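CHAIN AND CONFORMATION:

***
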Amino acid sequence: MRPTFARSRRRSEGARAVASWWRVLALALSGCGQVDGVVGKVDSTPIPAVTATFVEDFASNTGVWRNETTLPGAAAPFGVVDENALDQRAAELVFPGHPEFAANDKVGAEFATQIATSRRFHFGTYRTRMKFGACATSEQAVSAFLGYFSDGSDQNQNGITDDVEIDMQVVCGAPQFLYLTVFTDYEVDGSGVERFRKLTRVIDFSNGNVFDTPAPDQDGFSKTGQEPSLMRAGALATGEYHELGFEWHATSLRFFLVLEGSELTLWNLTDPARIPSAEVTIMYNIWHPDSQWYPKSGSADFPAHDVTLSVDWLRFYAE
């Protein structure tokens, strides 16, 4: 069984996707969240105040979270003073800069700075407030908020190991892009060939362009639209807090970004075959890919200076 905490690989919109490649409020709660799932649609109704099932403000680690700080200089302290956080306290995930490292050094999640819950969560709405770090455009580190689980089984009996992942990712060298990925299955056979079932969307907030993978077993991207409502320069600007999350049900999954107190729907998946069903561990992490992520290409340098992901709070509203 592969451990669910430290990812031993990373196969999403970076290293492989670039080669042509890596995973409101709950509707079931009465009066919770918006029902309009149109991409780019902003709900003008204020987000209602509802009691969350699970609340984390990151003022201290009470034992709910495990952390991993593999590289020299990495850190993941809780309760860091931050005047822009809701309670002036935040968790800081520091991915250490190492100018002596090359693009292909310390690649992947096994070298991540990471925190993950010791319990698992299921259907409902996940909301968080995060601040992303910057780096040079030639460098790359990925900051991620995700739900993940894999125990090596094949419960859906499609011949591929189940691999549940729901993630929202931002790269430090190009923060105008947001990468949304949903995995249901993933494995690597004895000869190194990958097999998977996943979908990914890339949103370019600088111009509203949307790119999607054409099929669950493909990694390439094609432009599928241009949404004027997604033209939001600075929507994920580094050094500022942003509220985002996803609304997960048995037959649907909606990603959103909160702007000026209202939700902007980014992606609404409604094919039940593409919706994960297993409970997940909640994770935040930063790690280094060796290649630039789509639509950029080429190698990505290891960051020369620290890249920090700050997490203000997390709210989970069970279905």
